[in-house]
């Protein structure tokens, strides 16, 4: 059985630390420097392959992205700019970038093989406790704190974007900076994108966003991790967004009977409708629930509802892929 400890993340980090570097886009084929291996995945963004550096023999993930449209190229270049700034152990790292042609670019990324956090914790051999939830949540907040210190908002914090570095340790990485934006304190930044279930009220209402917009999402992630319940999920995206804007939720389900008051207080200080009243990432890291070396409940949490949540998300993803494919074919 896998039972994570407070020490795992620091020990693994020292042993296998990723060395960040300054990335300059190269106008050539990445195959001149990397050997492309098997396909790891594909989606609307493009295709990802495992690749090996010809110089160091180290393995990475090569993400090929189609940029035939001017807007697509602009989006990828913004993502590259942001990832070049975000050099932190809790964030997916960019190692290289190639401008292959007018229609294709390639990003060489840190290879993460532990899978999505939620998929890992629902495995039968993983013991989910409040203590392990603290370890994961702390790391997410560390990544958010660093992003915000660089005046960058992620704006798409959700379980699918939290990956485990390995299948046995406890290190996590925040990924997918495709929707991330730079912000200037005092200036009004508004966005109208994100995942309804995890986006903050100010996103749905098209109001000013800020660092605590990400913190709302972390509050939702924590709520789901501890209970397996989604606090704002409706029968449709419209209903979900209406639930988000009302910001009405509770701890009444029996899933919270074994959860500490400190954990509930942590969530309560993030799921606040007024973004100015929410905890910042720094304040979250200083909250008693996330304090290191504190004795915590080792009671094993029931993962039945969390398993149902993960299965539902997989089904939704598959359904959206089928709909997208159908629309694509209709446009041929």
Outline the structure in words:
It is a single chain. By secondary structure, the protein is of the alpha+beta class. It has two domains: 21-110, Phosphorylase Kinase, domain 1 (2-Layer Sandwich), CATH 3.30.200.20; 117-316, Transferase(Phosphotransferase), domain 1, CATH 1.10.510. The chain is 36% helix and 15% strand. It has helices spanning 8-15, 70-85, 117-121, 130-149, 201-204, 211-227, 237-246, 261-268, 281-285, 304-330; strands at residues 34-43, 46-53, 59-66, 94-99, 104-110, 152-153, 162-164, 172-174, 181-182. The chain has a five-stranded antiparallel beta sheet, covered by helices on one side. A two-stranded antiparallel sheet has the order 6-9. It has a two-stranded antiparallel sheet with strand order 7-8. Strand 2 and strand 3 (59-66) form a beta hairpin. Helix 4 (130-149) runs antiparallel to helix 6 and helix 6 packs antiparallel against helix 8. The protein is globular and about 55 Å long. Residues 318-332 have low confidence and may be disordered. ATP binds at residue 70. InterPro entries: Kinase-like_dom_sf (IPR011009), Prot_kinase_dom (IPR000719), Protein_kinase_ATP_BS (IPR017441), Ser/Thr_kinase_AS (IPR008271).
């Amino acid at each position: 059985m896998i039972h994570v400890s407070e020490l795992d993340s620091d020990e693994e980090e020292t042993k296998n630390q990723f060395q960040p570097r300054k990335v300059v886009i190269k106008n050539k084929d990445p195959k001149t420097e990397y050997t492309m291996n098997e396909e790891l995945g594909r989606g609307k963004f493009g295709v990802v392959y495992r690749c090996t550096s010809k110089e160091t023999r180290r393995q990475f993930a090569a993400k090929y992205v189609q940029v035939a449209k001017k807007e697509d190229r602009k989006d990828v270049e913004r993502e590259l700019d942001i990832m070049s700034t975000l050099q932190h152990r809790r964030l997916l790292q960019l190692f290289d970038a190639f401008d292959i042609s007018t229609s294709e670019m390639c990003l060489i990324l840190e290879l993460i093989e532990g899978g999505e956090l939620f998929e890992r914790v629902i495995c039968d051999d993983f013991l989910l406790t409040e203590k392990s939830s603290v370890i994961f949540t702390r790391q997410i907040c560390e990544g958010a704190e660093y992003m915000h210190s660089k005046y960058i908002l992620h704006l798409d914090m959700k379980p699918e974007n939290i990956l485990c570095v390995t299948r046995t340790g406890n290190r996590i990485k925040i990924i997918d900076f495709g929707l991330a934006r730079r912000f200037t304190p005092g200036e009004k930044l508004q966005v109208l994108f994100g995942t309804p279930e995890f986006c903050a009220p100010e996103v749905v209402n098209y109001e000013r966003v800020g660092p605590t917009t990400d913190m709302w999402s972390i509050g939702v992630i924590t709520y789901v991790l501890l209970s397996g319940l989604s606090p704002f999920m409706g029968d449709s995206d419209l209903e979900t967004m209406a639930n988000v804007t009302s910001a009405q939720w509770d701890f009444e389900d029996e899933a919270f009977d074994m959860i500490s008051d400190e954990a509930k207080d942590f969530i309560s200080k993030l799921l606040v409708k007024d973004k100015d009243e929410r905890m910042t990432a720094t304040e979250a890291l200083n909250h008693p629930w996330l304090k290191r070396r504190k004795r915590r409940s080792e009671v094993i949490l029931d993962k039945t509802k969390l398993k149902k949540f993960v299965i539902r998300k997989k089904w939704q993803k598959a359904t959206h892929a089928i709909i997208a494919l159908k629309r694509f074919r209709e446009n041929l």
